[in-house]
User: Fold these one by one.
Assistant:
Number 1:
Amino acid sequence: MLEDTKIYEAAKYPWSISARTLLKELDISLKEIDANTRALQQAQRRLLQALESKEPVTLEGKTSSEFVEFTSFFVAKVMVDAIKSMYFRRRWATAEAKRAERFFFKESDLKLATLAKHNFNWQLDPKPTRIAGREFSHRLHFANYLAATAGFHEREWKLVNKRMVNGCVLLRKGDTARVLRAAVEQLLISDVKRVSPPFPPNIQQMYEELEVIVRNRTERIKQEIMGEIVPEAFPPCIQALLADMTEGKPLSHIARFTVTAFLLNVGMDVDSILQLFVKAPDFREDLARYQVEHIAGKRGSTEYTPPACAYLVSTRLCVKKDKHCEFIRHPLAYYRRRRKWIKPKSS
């Protein structure tokens, strides 16, 4: 009975520390999972639904399916790690985080606090509080709150608009589920493992099929972005970094990576980007060329994209936000939307 409970919890929250511990205890290999047709089908379904931004897969509620749900997540993660596409990883992380949020709504206040403590080391207290006729279920330390909501654009999530008690933000049950969802998404985006084919035969076939789908999808998105570069469509954060480069101001490592990855993804070539770095006080052409070519994927198998908005907020690179930033989660998404709007007007 205890083992059934463990499997059920791991199926609900396969990204959790307890689920990963259970996987090690069971000593399940990819070769074993390769023979489980249902697990492979479910893993593929999870990933395809993530790519299409459809409703995330949910636990079926049948005891026989819990092991399938549990193992399918790890196959899906292996696929994401192996394909090495940040676009793919973000889509998958978002879908899995939304799936987790469905379960968070059904948990007790104490269970949510336990999940937050064990997996994110949060100070989340299940302390019912009633203020001005409003019921709050939890208190979350403001530092944890700020880290989780860094990518939230809506005004209601700003710290100044939240009620606080003794350095903690008061949250309703739905708010708690939402910030936990953000933490899961951040965890899955950052939890990158070095995994490469070949895999057992059935998983290898899945990998090859998904790799083609992801490549075609990202190429299509690139085509929407590429073409004539429209600087007026650059997001404020990129424009600010370019202005600093023009003035010869030194940029941090993450700032250089962000602006380089962005410019490469909108179609600028390596030599043109190097010209922008010439004014940097510590400029060395050999080192700069190596770094730019690495980000471009010419010195490795990975082509990089700039960090998402949430990360740029956390590193203080998100500056001069404008009305177009609302509901945008990535600098390239900003550019793609603004470029479509600006080009017809300029032509």
Note: The chain has a mean pLDDT of 88.
Number 2:
Amino acid sequence: MINATNANTMKEKNRRLVLDLIRKNEYSRADLAKETSLTKAAVSIIVDDLIKTGVVSEFKSAETGIGRRPLCLKLNPDSMYAVGINITRSSAEVGIIDISGRIVCKNKVDVYPKKEALKQIVECIASMVKENAIDTERIYGIGVTAPGPVDSLNTTILNPTNFDEWHYENIGLRLKKALKTEVYLENVSGGLALCEKYFGIAKELNDFLLLIVSDGIGSGIMSSGKLLRNATELGHTSIAYDGIPCECGNVGCIEKYASIPAMLKGTKYADWNAVIEAEDAEIIEKEAEYLSCAIVNAINLFGFDSIILEGEINYRPQAIIDAIEKRLKNNTITRTDTRIFSGSAFSGVLCAAVTVFDNYFKFE
């Protein structure tokens, strides 16, 4: 019995390893064997099963040259779907996404009152499935992103500021009961970090910090290719022990200094775009100073060599990137040069849905 369990576990691990490689690039069977160190026979068994179930198909590569073109493998987009629900403080966006990341459909519902919102979300999903003739057997799960903090393991929204009506809502339990489908929950930043890893600029990055700077400050941390769950509230770390009181109960939280509303308070600017258009060096430098305090702490703790900026701060970001990088060179204790990237600004429903695909492709 023990040997059988181990064999089944290894078989599933190898299957997901092969799938993850096919997701990232075009591979022939021989390439997969070389990349995974599996035998060609073992790869062929896995691939034949994936083709039989419709998840993968084979096609002739576009390579030119002497000899026959090799057969390569790719995912079938319509072989699997995920429902994405992105909950914000003003609305909830609901969508269905295929395994390639294409948004098949999406819609918006109100988030207040909560009981009615949950009912509308369930009805919206059922309606979209019917209208788009999607086989429910091909829906792998429901991914939800919400303002943090959240308890991903127990699929519960905890106590995000200015979102009292949704505090301690076990949305996973409620949706699973209504729709009979597995539910996965991440905070918005975590979902966006996964999205960059699967579909964006971070495909080849295993370790990075994603920082959202808009009305608040959120963060997603990828370490060794895995999202650090329930550990990404960088916006509520203090940069001043005797600083401004925060709604979270702490004082001096970076969100009270470096969020866009905090930065613009008392200025003539209506939004961050206007600051950049005016090339206001004083405000840009001050924002870089605040953000660098938090980023330096994160680098010194985790040793990141890559930072991805998202949110309003991502408008024509080179000025703020240059200002932050200058400070990082002087203030971090690591010897690694840290690069800052402009993020991809993915749709909220895709960021929610990718939590489902991450569960499908990863084997732990």
Note: The chain has three domains: 2-75, 79-193+348-361, 203-342.
